[in-house]
Amino acid sequence: MKQQNQRPTRRIRVGGVEVGGDAPIAVQSMCATRTMDIDATVAQTHQLARAGAAIVRIALDNEKEVAALKEIRAQTAGVTLSVDLQENYRIADKVAPHVDKIRYNPGHLHHIEKAKTIRQKVKWLVDVARDHDLALRIGVNCGSVAPEFIEKFPGDQLAAIVESAAHHCELMNEFGFERFVVSLKDSDPAKVLEANRRFAERRPDVPIHLGVTEAGLPPEGIIKTRIAFEQLLARRIGDTIRVSLTLPNERKHEEVVVGHQIVSDVNAGRFISVPNFGAGLNIISCPSCSRVENEKFVELAQQVKKLTAYADRYKITIAVMGCRVNGPGETDDADLGLWCGPTTVNLKRKERKLGNFKYDAVLPRLKEEVDKLIAERSTAGN
After folding, report:
1. pTM
2. Which whole-number Å values give the CA distances from 232 to 52, 93, 222, 277, in the listed order?
3. Helices in 76-136 by DSSP H: which ranges?
4. Where are the domains of the chain?
């Protein structure tokens, strides 16, 4: 579906899909199945494609999963595949023959091969992409901004995100590579709006992938996403979008349906206004993916929402994260954070860890902490 008067970014090819320029806005999604479970991942890839996903993303964490990806690719011919390298950029050359696009996170490049510079690592990724006819996505996330930019812009996360993205674009220019898109994501739709507005002004030539990361459970997660997407798309900012909702696997395709509906509504001039949304309780939860180490994560997020409904008028943020990649960093800014491991849940208050709890034991302790926050804020008049 084509958006009228779209911002004239460059137009790039991702497999058989055109992104940017006057191309239709490409709605995409990501598999939540374990990549090693080939049958489930193939089935979900087709599920998302049938719902209208122009691009389907799969996460890989290590070289052991490459063989599974190869078989998934063989069984999903005709679907444009992107791969998320997570914290291990070194497997890019192994996955490249089996995908159409690679997403790397600038904030994860410093973790490994510390003797190499960021420039050297990005140059290698560009060479892999060029050799295998791939596109790249520079994916900057609020919870994993590269340390050098956090240090350079203390207390100004928005500046750190935008400058990190802009720096990697400059590296792409230096290496003569143009087949890339950029995403600047946060769980706060207001920050997503501002970060992408700033970046689009800075680099009007670069196609943008829009997303509100960890938007959470519907319907609130849909509302958060709309708040950012409607305003950005109306400004002609955004060339491909991903709606990130916490959903069980059988409903994962709803992300794609919602994405198409938002694009359709903006094109038709239909905007949904939610007065004072976000003024009270805010539950952030990631959309689940192959990194999730216990499928009870989605059920836990639903239980947290139900348990804390009584606190809806208090400005409290609770984050429920499903894995070790996003869990530790992206719960730090929440009043209370739960990040889920294989058998236990790490409960935090801001950056302070309160302990590990079994899945069936964490909720009563969470309620205690919510009650403490309510009492503190009632006393303080908040």
Report:
1. 0.88
2. 21, 34, 15, 18
3. 92-95, 118-131
4. 12-267, 282-380
- The identity of residue 14, as a single letter, is V
Q: Can you read off the two tokens belonging to residue 160?
A: 């750190």
CA distance 29 to 56: 5
**β-pairing verdict for 240-242 and 55-59:** unpaired
- Evaluate if residue 29 carries a pLDDT over 70: yes
Q: Compute the chain's Rg from CA coordinates.
A: 20
Side chain identity at residue 84, one-letter code: D
Q: Where are the alpha helices (DSSP H) in 273-351?
A: 296-307, 327-330
Angle value at C-alpha 71, between 69 and 77, nearest 5 degrees: 95
Token pair listed for 41: 């991942």
Q: How many CA atoms lie within 13 A of 210 on its CB side?
A: 36
Helices (H) and strands (E) in the chain, counts: 12, 15
12-267: CATH topology: TIM Barrel (3.20.20)
Domain 282-380 is of which CATH architecture? 2-Layer Sandwich (3.30)
Amino acid identity, residue 121?
Answer: K
pLDDT digits (tens, 9 = 90+) for 300-347: 999 999 999 999 889 999 999 887 666 676 777 889 999 888 889 999
